[in-house]
Amino acid sequence: MSASDSRGLPAVHDGPRMARHLRSPAARAIGFVLGVALLALAVWTISKDASAWDRLGQVLAKPWHLAALAACVTMNVGIAGLVFHRLYRPVAQIPLGEMELLIASSSLLNYLPAKAGLAGRALYHKVVHGVPLGVSVRLILMSFAGTVLSCLVLGAVVMFLRDGVAIIAAWLLLAAIVWVMPRARRMGPLPRAFSESVSLRFMDLGIWCVRYWIVFNVLDISIDPRSAALAGITAMLVGLVPFGANGLGMREWAIAWLGGVAGWTADAGLSADLVNRAVDLIVVVPLGAVCTYVATRRLTARLRETGAAAR
After folding, report:
1. Distances (CA, A) of 212 to 36, 117, 158
2. Is 246 left (phi over 0), alpha (psi -120 to 50) or beta?
3. Per DSSP, what are the bridge partners of residue 4?
């Protein structure tokens, strides 16, 4: 059995090795190139379908739908910040606003070939808050586990329930149970933080489902809550692919292929997720750029303080 530190986490002697795996620049570069190629292929495929271009032309005629979609993207970023704020609570007292800043920055940087958002955030926490890299890696893996768990649970819900209202009610009830459970059972700080983060991931996944319901309706394609849930599950799982750049290209084709089960054509799936991706970038690029600038200034200032103290 591995030793534990005072925070209740496993010993972090392998932190540098795990941090190198987190970066994996060669694999990330390959994933980025593959993602760009798949995205270009999706655009090329749509360009051959006149009806798909007609559907995309309808998008600008529905500004309120697009505004709702942009609000959902913003909420996804905000909930991700809450997830990591909860996970880091047993390790370091990081202000919520600062964590939200880092997550917004990471949302943009994760589009880069080296997926710099994850590695950069771990480095920031090490320099500014003294959190070992190995601990940050473990907390990131716990976040991934929470995402997979939420997807499995929603998958089971839509397998057994067909009615849309029943699916939504069951989902909200399960999220509440997972949130309350650690308080009822008096769990330790880390299990409690994980349970709370899973409950937040339930909400995160729910918003992804709403995003797909909105984006398909923007294209005048009616889908039911079950199909929206399947799309949300697919999108979140694709986002976990370790060598992907925020699922770039891969997510678009995954949603297209999902249509065989969920009831839309491949071209409709591609069109829907290209709109989803476009709105995501419209929100994440300016927000992430500002937050990256602020976070970089803070990190640089701390490095200077550390250097001055060392001298």
Report:
1. 22, 25, 16
2. left
3. 10
pTM, whole model, 2 decimals? 0.86
pLDDT in tens, 65-89: 899 999 999 999 999 999 999 999 9
Condensed to tens digits (0 to 9), the pLDDT of residues 185-220 reads: 677 888 888 988 999 999 999 999 999 999 998 888
CA 286 to centroid of chain Cα atoms? 18
Q: What gap in Å lies between CA 97 and CA 294, rounded to an integer? A: 12
Burial readout 83-96 (b: 16 or more C-beta within 10 A, e: otherwise): bbbbbbbbbeebee
Tokens coding 280: 């995501």
Tally the residues of the chain.
311
Alpha helix (H) residue ranges in the chain: 15-23, 25-47, 50-57, 63-88, 96-109, 116-129, 133-160, 164-184, 189-218, 225-238, 250-262, 266-310
Distance CA 201, CA 152 (A): 12
For residue 6, the number of C-alpha atoms closer than 13 Å in the C-beta half-sphere is 3
Distances, alpha carbon 303 to alpha carbons 130, 158, 290, 296, 309, in Å: 12, 49, 20, 10, 10
Q: Say how many C-beta atoms besides its own lie within 10 A of residue 156's C-beta.
A: 12
- Alpha-carbon separation of residue 236 from 8, 157, 169, 274, 302 (angstroms): 29, 16, 21, 16, 34
